[in-house]
Amino acid sequence: MTFAVMTNLVTILFCAAVLVQSMRMMRSLKVVRREGLAEVAAVVDRVTGEARMVLQELKGALADCEASVRQMADGKAMVDELTVMIGIANASADHMTDAANAARRARMEDIR
Questions:
Q1: How far apart are CA 14 and CA 86, in angstroms?
Q2: The pLDDT value given to residue 15
Q3: What HEC string does the chain produce?
Q4: d(CA 79, CA 68)
């Protein structure tokens, strides 16, 4: 068998498959036509409306989440600032404690 004959056979098989598929599709279209195309269109419209409502609700939820994320970011920034302030206050308290202890020791030496 030559290459040309082989490709012709493959093409025949593909054409046969297309014919079978088109017959199946025609049967399906006849069923849809019997059930009423208007009914199918009404169902599609109803489902589309429901999908739009769900999409609007999701957009609202996303907006709420976005606000929460902003608040969390602001809270994180405040936590970082407060951590720095607490560190500074602790260092100042340590210095004041050291100074008070040194003054106490000096006073005790003066009393002796």
A1: 78
A2: 93
A3: CCHHHHHHHHHHHHHHHHHHHHHHHHHHHHHHHHHCHHHHHHHHHHHHHHHHHHHHHHHHHHHHHHHHHHHHHHHHHHHHHHHHHHHHHHHHHHHHHHHHHHHHHHHHHHHC
A4: 16
Dist. CA 39–CA 93, nearest whole Å? 80
CA angle 33, 38, 41 (to 5 degrees): 105
Mean pLDDT by 10 residues, the chain (112 residues): 87 93 89 72 87 90 83 89 91 89 84 74
2: phi then psi, degrees, rounded to nearest 5: -90, 170
pTM: 0.41
Structure-token pair, residue 11:
């093409």
Q: What is the CA radius of gyration of the chain?
A: 41
CA 84 to chain centre: 33
